[in-house]
Amino acid sequence: MALATVRDLMIAELRDIYTAETQLLRALPVIASGGATRSLRTALEDHLEQTHDHVVRLKRIVVLLDERARGTTCRGMEGLLEDCEELLDEDGDDTVRDAKSVDDLLSAIAEEEVSITFRGMEMT
After folding, report:
1. What is the DSSP code string of 41-53?
2. What is the pTM of this model?
């Protein structure tokens, strides 16, 4: 998509955010099921619900703008989620694995929030 107008930029950024959120939406159930503690699984399931709401809201916005929501894969989110999924296969203390999972997921969520913040700043 050529970025000839501010509207083009806004659509491109919304698609990027939508794609990152859908990647997280697909990965969270797998990561949650691998959590050793009930509290971690519950926290991830709660975030899954929030992420689902974000995806629905973003899709609604893009459709209202008469566009398609689909974008290209977010490589940063992909890498962070792969790290989380690889961790599920590692041997070790469950508490340590859960702590690392939380750290990786917080990085993914932080990337998601930072990108939204910067995109908001770009559009003002």
Report:
1. HHHHHHHHHHHHH
2. 0.73
